[in-house]
């Protein structure tokens, strides 16, 4: 039997390994809705994910996996120490 977990989205926004931190009252609600909708879209395309079901506004059930810790900015090769490139003139 697979281990299952409940994932709860928090009300904090962070960046730069937690150097920047801000509070947004409804962030957990928006994050859960967006996340669940993305996983449901993947499911319609028969792409397997760890997602099982949405529980409520801030939580969903998933199969327990090992997380790969990555900051999105670092994934793009950007960090707080580097200047951002402008996409448009």
- State the fourth-level CATH superfamily: Phosphorylase Kinase, domain 1
| CATH top level assignment | Alpha Beta
Low-confidence stretches: none
How much of the polypeptide forms β-strand, as a percent range?
A: 25-35%
Output the number of helix runs: 2
What CATH calls the topology is Phosphorylase Kinase, domain 1
The helix/strand class is alpha+beta
Whole-number count of domains: 1
What does the average pLDDT come to?
81
Query: How far is it from the N-terminal to the C-terminal residue, by CA?
Result: 54 Å
Which word captures the global form? globular
Instruction: List how many beta strands DSSP finds.
Output: 5
CATH architecture: 2-Layer Sandwich
Oligomer: single chain
Give the biggest beta sheet. 3 strands, antiparallel
H-E order: EEEHEEH
- Major β-sheet strand ordering: 1-5-4
